[in-house]
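Saturday, quiet lab. Running sequence design on the structure tokens for the scaffold JK sent over.
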């Protein structure tokens, strides 16, 4: 029988130093399986996160285009109103300026 020291300094009898103990092999296999499972889960989470981010970016682009279109429509309406009612528009702009000026003085 051979007497060898393991990594912790304990003496192990009757085993060859080049062969790991069966418990060590099982522990190593469990560790590998755990790491593989974690990697698989992380990869799945990454795919889902990327998909969700791409979906959010698409929704944002669509919303941005819709808002830009609404702003253009409203700007056209304001211009039409000003062209049809120039005196009223000037009076509204003056009143808005007076109100804004009084608010900013405070």
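Result came back. Writing it out in full:
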């Amino acid at each position: 029988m051979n007497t060898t020291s393991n990594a912790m300094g304990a003496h192990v009898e009757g085993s060859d130093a080049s062969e790991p103990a069966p418990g060590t092999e099982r522990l190593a296999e469990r560790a590998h399986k755990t790491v593989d499972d974690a990697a698989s889960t992380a990869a799945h989470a990454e795919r889902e996160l990327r998909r969700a981010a791409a979906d959010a970016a698409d929704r944002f682009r669509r919303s941005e285009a819709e808002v830009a279109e609404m702003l253009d429509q409203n700007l056209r309406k304001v211009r039409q109103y000003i062209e049809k009612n120039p005196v009223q528009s000037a009076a509204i702009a003056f009143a808005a300026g007076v109100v804004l000026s009084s608010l900013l003085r405070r």
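Notes for JK: The beta strands are 3-5, 11-13. Residues 19-105 form one domain. Ask whether to fix the surface positions before the next round.
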